[in-house]
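User: Design a sequence. Structure:
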């Protein structure tokens, strides 16, 4: 074995010892725990960033209120408008729906051509709910303003909204009295409210 071969063997041996020492150091030395927030943003994964910044999603519940609008043929139709409903804030669905109906369309809904035949002076006196029936008690403005055509339309708005948001029979009262005959025209209203209530 010549001198160059001996030097090569010594060099290889030294390299092997260095590798073994490095491996042993990595195995036996304790490593600090690395948390996502300890890492620079540029080094973090997309999933980690989304986990930090993604807000909690809450499912929304809606009720529908019937107003009036026009379809693509410019025909007058009843339009169901969605309103966000929160039972902890708004109470029962039927109560929230009736108050929303009487208060009328919101400005952004009016901009889309939605309107109501219910007079602005109409007010909810109270709504009584039980397991057997619901009484919607409105003031006289609801039935006394406007002509017969307008009165029919507002009654249908009320009927459609009530039926959609209650599985319990709904009755209309005006100033505390059951409204079986409405307005100066003497419109007959069969109760509880249904789609055939005005078919006399």
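Assistant: Done.
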């Amino acid at each position: 074995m010549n001198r160059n071969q001996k030097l090569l063997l010594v060099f290889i041996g030294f390299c092997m010892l260095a590798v073994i020492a490095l491996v042993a150091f990595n195995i036996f030395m304790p490593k600090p725990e690395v948390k996502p927030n300890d890492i620079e943003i540029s080094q973090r994964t997309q999933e980690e960033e989304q986990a930090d910044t993604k807000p909690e999603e809450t499912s929304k519940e809606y009720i529908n209120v019937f107003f009036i609008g026009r379809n693509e043929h410019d025909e007058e139709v009843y339009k169901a408008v969605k309103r966000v409903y929160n039972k902890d804030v708004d109470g029962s669905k039927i109560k929230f729906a009736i108050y929303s109906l009487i208060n009328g369309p919101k400005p952004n809904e009016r901009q889309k051509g939605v309107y109501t035949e219910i007079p602005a002076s109409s007010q909810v006196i109270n709504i009584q709910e039980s397991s057997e029936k619901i009484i919607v008690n409105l003031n006289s403005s609801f039935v006394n303003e406007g002509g017969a055509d307008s009165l029919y339309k507002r009654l249908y708005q009320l009927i459609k909204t009530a039926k959609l948001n209650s599985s319990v029979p709904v009755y209309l009262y005006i100033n505390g009295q059951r409204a079986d005959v409405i307005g100066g025209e003497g419109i007959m209203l069969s109760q509880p409210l249904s789609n055939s209530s005005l078919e006399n």
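The CA atoms of residues 133 and 169 lie 5 Å apart. The chain has a mean pLDDT of 81.
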